[in-house]
Design goal:
It is built from 5 helices and 15 strands. It has helices at 28-38, 40-47, 86-98, 176-192, 236-248, and strands at residues 2-8, 11-16, 57-62, 71-76, 105-111, 114-120, 125-129, 134-144, 148-156, 160-164, 205-210, 219-224, 258-262, 267-274, 280-295. The structure holds pyrrole-2-carboxylate.
């Protein structure tokens, strides 16, 4: 299996070029469901240690079903198949440009949650125009065991987010362990207390919005992903959901640009336009760097062929 690894603001993406399972030729949402339900061991083996690394997201390339798109992609982390992935899309754009498959300019990409587009601005910089994002419920309070009540917004940005603003604790890299523990407890509280999307979708990510000490940086976030790892980048789908919340509460005008950074200080430039369904069409600009090109081998006699699963 040939792969190319990149990182976007420190968050790794592994693009899988061949060797994936047969997911059929139906809609990408059905193919993503098949990956999640029938090929769990396959996708985990690619990202779990020892072949993968904590936080890494996989990008499985599939033929686009929509003829206006150049390529299809299904993203996953070590725990779940994702609807969309912003940092992964920046990594994918840089990877495809590195391979000579696309050049500077605009390219349409199909994902399980809809068509997105990317503008490759240079060898490392990609602008992502994401699916329409929306705030679904404002000021939802959950009771987090051992912590107390926590109030946040439920929002969609290609994945499902519970966004707490302001963060209950400072968003700084020295506190990543404590932020992670509190975010896991918050996600569990959301699930247990029925904080779900319109069609029962579970919250899969939690965001704590903090402040940055840097001039010109609007905010700094901590994002918990489904695999219980934190996003080293400011999370493209989380930033999309956050833009929807800022728009819904009148705190950011269409076209206005802000810089948001991750808990480790990597930045995205963010803005939005109004969407057709009343949400926002987010635009995210970030940078990715190629780290490695390789061939993954899964020996039959390798006791950790499936990854370290316990
Ligand atoms: O950038 O959207 C994102 C993302 C989702 C999970 C990890 N990164």
């Amino acid at each position: 299996m040939h792969v190319i690894d990149s990182h976007t603001g420190g968050m790794p993406t592994r693009v899988i070029l061949d060797g994936g399972p047969d997911l059929g030729s139906g809609p990408l949402a059905d193919q993503a469901r098949a990956l999640a339900t029938e090929h769990e061991a396959f996708y985990k083996s690619i990202l779990l240690e020892p072949r993968g690394q904590p936080g890494m997201v996989g990008a499985l390339l599939v033929p686009a079903q929509d003829p206006t798109c150049e390529i299809g992609v299904i993203y996953f982390d070590a725990d779940a198949v994702l609807g969309m992935c912003g940092h992964g899309t920046i990594g994918l754009g840089v990877t495809l440009a590195h391979m000579g498959r696309i050049g500077v300019g605009t390219h349409r990409i199909e994902t399980p949650v809809g068509v997105i587009s990317i503008d490759v601005l240079d060898a490392n910089t990609v602008r992502v125009t994401n699916v329409e994002s929306r705030r679904v419920k404002a000021d939802v309070t959950v009771d987090v065991p051992d912590y107390g009540p926590m109030t946040g917004d439920l929002a969609y940005g290609g994945n499902w987010f519970f966004i707490v603003d302001p963060s209950p604790m400072p968003v700084k890299s020295a506190d990543i362990r404590a932020l992670t523990d509190l975010a896991i407890a918050t996600r569990e509280a959301c699930v247990a207390q029925g904080v779900v999307g319109e069609n029962g979708e579970l919250v899969d990510h939690v965001v704590f919005q903090g402040v940055s000490p840097k001039d010109g940086v609007h905010s700094r976030n901590f994002v918990l992903c489904p695999d219980d790892e934190y996003d080293r980048s400011p999370c493209g789908t989380g930033s999309s959901a956050r833009l929807a919340c800022l728009a819904a509460s009148g705190r950011l005008a269409p076209g206005e640009e802000i810089v948001q950074e991750s808990v480790i200080g990597s930045p995205y430039r963010l803005s939005y336009q109004i969407g057709e369904a009343g949400g926002v069409i987010p635009t995210i600009v970030g940078q990715a760097y190629i780290m490695a090109e390789g061939t993954l081998l899964f020996g039959d006699d390798d006791p950790f062929k499936a990854g370290i699963t316990d």
